């Protein structure tokens, strides 16, 4: 594989891994429900994988919008001479914008999900730090609710990576990105769930890292864009 493919591959893997591992909502509910409902390891694994694939699907839908836009630009004759520089700069600009957006969200203390155990039931709610949550705002978590939570929470930083490959009209790059993102996301979710289910703690405080997920993702895309524009990746 050439340098461009490696850069896109490493970006997709790092974004999907950090996005998944830094958010307790990607694995904590599975751990809690599995223990409270006394699910088997197989049932827990199947639900985790299905929800992971639903999460990937929503991310890819947004990503393929980027691919479509890139392909449409390729149909414009005068764009052919500009597409290399344009796609690299688009990647760089999106990364910078997302980096700033992540910093603003981290500073503003954006709402985040929490899961509570009450008896044999698990409830989900969203709040800011130091904010009280009324009982009626809590939603009982079921397998269907879990699936919907993941489908409605895509990973936006995948969009510029697929847009870049769409502009280049490279099906090979698109397949590499889709495959690496899917496999990394599902395996990371499953790994974190199994670690928690069998009593092992994670290596870092994911709740603190979650707050800076936008910053980290934006930085990864920005570095990738810098490489494409200035380093000839």
TrEMBL record:
Transmembrane segments: 45-71, 86-104, 144-164, 176-200, 212-231
Keyword hit for Membrane: yes
Keywords carried by this UniProt record: Membrane, Transmembrane, Transmembrane helix
Descriptive protein name: Cytochrome C biogenesis protein transmembrane region
């Amino acid at each position: 594989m050439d340098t461009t493919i490696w850069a896109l591959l490493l970006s997709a893997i790092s974004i999907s891994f950090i996005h998944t591992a830094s958010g307790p909502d990607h694995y904590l509910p599975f751990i809690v429900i599995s223990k409270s409902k006394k699910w088997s390891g197989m049932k827990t694994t199947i639900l985790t994988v299905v929800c992971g694939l639903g999460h990937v699907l929503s991310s890819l839908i947004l990503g393929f919008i980027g691919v479509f836009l890139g392909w449409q630009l390729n149909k414009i004759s005068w764009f052919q001479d500009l597409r290399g520089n344009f796609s690299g700069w688009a990647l760089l600009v999106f990364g910078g914008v997302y980096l700033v957006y992540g910093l603003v969200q981290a500073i503003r203390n954006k709402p985040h999900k929490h899961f509570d155990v009450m008896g044999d039931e698990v409830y989900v709610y969203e709040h800011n730090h130091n904010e009280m949550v009324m009982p009626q705002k809590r939603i009982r978590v079921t397998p269907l609710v879990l699936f919907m939570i993941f489908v409605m929470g895509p990973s936006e930083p995948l969009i510029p990576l697929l847009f870049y490959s769409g502009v280049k009209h490279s099906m090979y790059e698109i397949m590499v990105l889709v495959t690496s993102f899917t496999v990394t996301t599902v395996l990371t979710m499953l790994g974190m769930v199994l670690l928690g289910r069998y009593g092992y703690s994670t290596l870092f405080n994911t709740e603190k890292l979650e707050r800076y997920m936008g910053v980290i993702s934006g930085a990864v895309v920005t570095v990738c864009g810098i490489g494409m524009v200035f380093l000839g990746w």
